[in-house]
Structures are given as C-alpha cells and as structure tokens.
User: What shape does this take?
Amino acid sequence: MHEEIAHYLSEKLQKKGADDVIVQFGEGESSLIKFVNSKISTTKTWSNANLGVFIAKDKKIMVSSLKEFNQKAADELANKMMQNIRKLQPNKEYRGIAKGPYKYKDISQLYDKKIEDMDEEMIDITKQGIEAAGKTAKRVSGVFEKSKSEVLILSSNNIHAREKGSSLYFSLRALANKNASGYGSCVSRMKDKLNFIDIAEHAGAIAKQALLPRKSIAGKFDVLFEPYAFAAMVERFADSASIFNVESGLSCLEKKQGKKIGNSKVSIYDDGTIPNGFASALFDDEGTPTQRTAILEKGVLKNYLHNTSSAKRYKTKSTGNAGLISQKMNNIILEKGNASKEEMFKSIKKGIYISNVWYTRFQNYQTGDFSTIPRDGAFYIENGKIKYALKDIRISENILNLMQNVAMLGKETHQVKTWEVETPTFLPYTLVKNVNITKPN
Amino acid sequence: MDKDLANFSTNYAQKLGASYAEARLEESTGNSTVIKNGIIQATGFDKAEGLGMRFIINKKMGFVSTNKLTKEKIKQVIEKAIKITKATGKVGENIELSDEKAHQAEYTVKQKIKLADLSGEDRIKVLMDAEKAIATTKVNVPSRYIVLSDEEVTEYLTTTEGTKITAHIPRVHFYYFLSMLENQKLSQRYWVYGAASGWEQIQKWNIPKILSEEATTMKEVLTKGKKTPLGKMPIVCGPQVTGIMVHESCGHPFEADRILGREAAQAGESYISRDSLGKKIGSAVVNIVDDPTIPGTFGYYLYDNEGVKARRKYLLKKGKVTEFLHNRETAKQMGIKSNGSSRASDYEKEAIIRMSNTFMLPGKQSEEELFEGIKKGIYMKNFMEWNIDDKRLNQKYTGAAAWLIENGELTTPVINPVLEVSSLKLYPSIEAVGNNLELHAGDCGKGEPMQGIPVLLGGPSIKLQGLRIK
Assistant: This one.
C-alpha cells in the first residue's frame, strides 16, 4: 500500500505540471539497547515509514514529506505543493535531476537477513561486550543498535530503483574511574562481521592505561592518532569537498581544484560502493549510481562532490552524492600506508598518542582554523614508549596544515562510525608531525 | 489528532504487564526556506504525526515509537518492544521513578500573526530583505547562508498514573552563516535566533538589521583589528559569550543523568558530583537559573515530557551549587522530587534530561561600568569557535568581534582573542555582573540517537579577573 502511494504521488505531481519529481519511500525497523554502568538501562524499538518528495517547476524547488499513506493525504500534498510552488522564486542555479534508467552494479554485504531475527540475541552480545571491557575497566556504557531498511526511489526522469539494507552499530565507553576512559565502536551490515569483542577489549585497555598519573602539556608535538580520533578531522575535511559547502563558505577547499594542498602520502576518497560499508548504497537521493570519487589524491585536490544539478553548472559529472538539496558524503576513505603501529611509535621521540577526540569546531571554515578536544586516553610518548597519561589538552590547529603534516599511515584500515563521527570513515592509525597542543588557564 | 491512540497504547502496555506507561502522541507541521548567496535554494514544508511511549515492565525500562498509527500496528510494536525489554533479565537495571502528582492540563502559546496564515512568499520576503540589507552596508560578504524555519507542534501526553496534558507550541527560528572579506582578511560568523511564538517575533527581531549590523561590525574588526595582546588581564565577556559559558559549563554538568553516568558513552559525564551540592564553585555574584516557564522563550514549556510541572531551578546561587536538573528517574535515585527537566525532541525519541532557558541572572552595573577601572583588558562581544571536554571542565572560546579596553574605554578591535579555561577557575574569576541580560537561542544536542532541542542560553556581560588571554 505504501509503495502504491509513492507511485500515485509521483504520477499526480507530474500530471499537475511539475517539471521534475523525485519520490523517495523509506521504511525501517530498529532496536537499540542502551547500557549504563554495566547494566542495560533502556531498550528502544522503532517502526517507521517516510516518503520524501522533491519537485521543480520553472526552476522553483520545493521539498516535502508525507507520513500518512493514503490517497487523500497524497492528493492534499500534491495540491498544496503545486499551488505553493508557483509563488516561489526560481533557483537560478538549478539544472535538473539525474536521467535514468541506470543499471546498478551489485554491491555485496549490504543486507543480511540474519540481522532481522536477532532481537533477543542483542542482549547476549551486549553482555559479552560489557564483560570483555569489564576485564580491565570498572564500568561500561554504550549502545548496540540494529536496523533494517528498504528504500524505493522514483523520479520523473526514468528512475525506478529499490534496495534493502541491514546494519549493526556497537559503541562502548569503558571507565576505569571518573577520569580514565577508553572508547571502542564497530559497525557492520552483516551479522557475522561485527568484531565487538575486540573493540570492547581495546576500550577497556585504554581506560586502564589512562589511570597512570596525569598532567597537562602544551606546544608542538608529533601525534599518533587512533582511527577514532583522526576520523573526526578526515570527515570534516571531506565534507569541505561538498560543493554546497564550498559555495556556502563552509569549506577550506574553494578555488583549490587541481592544486596540491596535502602531503603526497594523503589520498582521500568518497566511496558509496564499499562492501559492508555502513553508508554504502546502490544509488544516491536522485537515483544516480554511487561511485568512488577521489577528493584528494597524493595531496592534490581532484574533485568536489556533486549532484546532477551542480555537476552541470560546473561542467562535470555527478559524483553520486545527491541529497535532495545539498550534496552529502557516502563513506569516506583515508588511504592506508604501510607502517605498523610499532614502527609509528618507534619513530616518535617526544609526542602524544590520542585515542579519541570530540567537539571539533571551526573558527574559520575557509582558512581551516579549528580546535578539537582529546577524549578518553591520551598519552605522552618519549622515545617510542608511552610514559604517562595526559589530561586537559586540546588540539588547536589548521586542517590544511594537518593534511600537510601527515608523516606515516598505518597498514590496516578501520571503519569508524561513532557518536562524534556520523559519516563512516575508513582510515588507518595516522602519525602527524608538529601538531599544536594547548592547555587551559 | 486521535488521542485515543495514546490512551490505547498505555492501556495495552499495562495489559501486557507494564507497571507504568507514558505515551506521547505528537502532530507537527513545519516550514523552512534556505537562501544561499542571494538565491533561494528550496522551500520545504513537512507534516508529521507519531507516537512514542516509555514503559516499565519487571522494573526494566523500554521505549517504543512508530508513525504507523493504526491500533493493529501499535499493538504489534508494543509486543515486540516488551519482549526485548523483558529479555534483559538480570543484566537489566531496575528503574524506579519518583512519586509525582498527576496533572491534567492543556496550554497554548498564542500567536498574534498565525504561522498557518503565512505564504511561502512572506517567508522568502524576509530573506530577500535581509540580502538587500547586507548589500546596503557595502561590506564584502561573499558567502551568505540563511535558513528561516517555523513549526507548530501539538503534543498529547498520557500516563497510566492519570496524567493527561496537551500542549500547543509554535516556534520560529532563523540561522545565519556569513563570511566577510575585507582588507584581504576573512572572518566568519554564525548565530541563531529562536522563540516560542507566532510570526510576530520574526518581525520583532528585524532580521535585516541583525545581519547588516553583523556585517558592519565584522568589517570594523577586519579593517582596524590589531593582534591580540597576550597574557593575564581583565576580560569582559558580552552576553552571547556568557550565555554559551553558562550553557556548557554550568547547565550541562548540572544534568543529573550525566552526574550519575547515564550519558558516559555519548555526551559525557560531569565535573560535578552528588557531593557538590552546597559547595561554592563560583564567586558570590554568580546566580544561574534554568527556567522553562518564561512566556515566548525558545525553551518554553509548562509541563515536561513526564508530566511534571515545570519551574525555575537555581543551579548556582551566590556561587553555591543548589540544584541539579532532574527527571523522575534521577530524582528517585537522589531521594527527591523531579524538577521537571525531562524532554524529547520528537515522538521518535525518549525523554531525557534537558536544559530549557539557562542563564546567569543580571546584576546592577551597566556594561560601561564593567569597563571602568580596567587599564588594559579585552572585551569579547561574541565568538565563533568554542568547545569543552566531556566532563565540562576544559573550555575554549575564540572571540569574533572583540576590542581592547584601555583606561576604561573600548579602543581598537582585536583579532581572535582566545580564552581557554577550566570551569573551576572560570566561575571564581567572575568579579562583576552587568545588568544587560540577553537570551540567545541554541539547538542543544544530546542522547543517542541524537536529539537536538530548542533552548535559550544567556546572561549579562561579565567581568573576569586573573585569567590569561592567548
């Protein structure tokens, strides 16, 4: 019934004179277990459906949504949209939507039926995660969420596509005491690929290590970032490649296409086609097939992220990053290197190991000046060895400087999706030289 | 809105064994218009209706939400939710709620100019006028991104204890992000305005004036701004800076769920503990309240999402810790009554402890009087970058519009002064509090899934002593 309404609404809007129509129907079910101080505190269950609508008429654009799935509601919405759109102002930048049909390449490991039936098993997994972190930590908090979703997209330009997805997200913070914590998270689209024990043990180990005596330091240091920490910066950097952000002043990449802005070691991609990628999808919000797009290749800014309309304006091709209004990222990748974690530690004479950060904020998006705060264990390193845990430090830096100063990249890639990093980001351990560290009054 | 669906849900949960259930049925309509560099990007409107319900079964807490509003579907999701919640068994925490009076009430925020009567053209006109006003200033503002939005929400709350509350709240909101380029230097500023009101508040704000003043001020900073002197000196913070400080380093750490570790994996814990009650953490001039009952404010409500009557809470009185923000669960754990701080951003989210309108109470001196006697200091009128650690101690504010204070007067603008300070040093350093109270809007994020909720943050200008500018 819900799908029928999507078709009905799409046809109705076209009949009423809309030039372009996109209707997206999504339906999903999720369960979430929240655990606090090593006990399950709440369980949450959702079942929702949503229909998103985009129309253009004489370059005027309107978006809306429908959550009542009957013909009457669809009629009302179509009438209201067509009445109102006539009075709006044209978006002179608008150049249309994707033209189908497309043949979508199959991407493996995006849906696993086994996830649908694991409601009660989620409690066992949560227990095991709490126990694994609890071996070295005093208390453990976090969430474990599972979802399944179905998306159907229809457009007036010959798009008719659907896909099914499943996902698991396990996020955990272990605390050895009030001031000593460690973090771990993992995501997977497939039930058997969730390595929750490893990340729980890692969080517990960092929490225990953070119990050592602490002090605050400031100055320039070589910093070895865990993937959780550097992902926050890579994600923000990649988001700067969205052409919407470039035009809005929310980017440090304006007028830099083709220029070398990062170290030759640094290559960053947007990729919606990664098997088991948390944000992988067959198509974007206008039905364009997703792809792998080089943002930065060996330090050179290669591409901005586009939808069909912006791509036409810039005389290029869509990169499969359409949201209905602005471009959005798929999965982000910082290409791995070939260093082992041990080699990276060994190369540090005086430096800092940062396991996680949060609260990344920009003073100036265009110059790239920002700061972010280490959260969970951060440690002082001398001659390749951790000496003691640090407290109350901040990274006060410039994001372009960071990309210039990347010195070593680990040989293993980790998929990071956390409370702080919403876009799944694939990256290795990363060593950055001369990072500016500040401390409070 | 079919209120019977909410009553049906709580009854059905009870029938399946729940000792307590609390359902919120929510209906909302919203409009938003986005303009980027003078070009209207899109206009949107939304209508949504859905149900969210918390329940306690075998002392375990569960939450369920759906927008598929048929009794058959509701029964199905409740059965599923109860099954999962029951299965938590021994690893599940026993949840108890404080005893509270059940209320029956209905309240409405009146609109002088009804949002429902406005057209897309009316909304676009405000944005185009703002664009014109920026152009009139002759300041070079190459990037301009403005979002204007409004919503009307009706919430019906019903509990198995007899609470039945209906609230109708309209809200208006606008956000801007401007990049100013003058003297080959670039500066950026964003800010947010929000109120529980009809369209009249949009007119009262005078958005074109706000934006043109912003551009003009930043031009002065860019063209005349000097390097910030560093070192220890008196600092006067304007109301926007005071507001963000109060929100981040007093409001958040006073949320009892953070104090008890319930947000450890998300928004973090707190430097405040249960033992902090009665202790002095600020100077005697510091009084901070959280008050949802002020008519017209962005964080306005009269009953929270657990049905507890809202009231003003004193977080700090004369520098002493007096009260935390509570819901019924944390209140029970601390052996007191809830003070009505539980809110959900929408029907899809469980209610958790939130700030409402959090601000420092004003003193008697004017802002100019705060400058008096300062030989050399910094006035930080507003900021751009800020952040704070997860225990709410180590915070940083980087000034956007800022001036040097010399011999009691504002003289030269200064570029990006930085105040990086621990909460334990910040509140004792407040020497004087101005009388120029301002309340500013914010969209506060907390919880998992993330819930952004309307709040006000504010205060008057304040004078800090003994801190270093970087």
Observations:
- The longest strand of chain A covers residues 39-57.
- Chain A has a mean pLDDT of 96.
- Residues 71-85 of chain A form the longest helix (15 residues).
- Residues 188 and 194 of chain A are 6 Å apart (CA to CA).
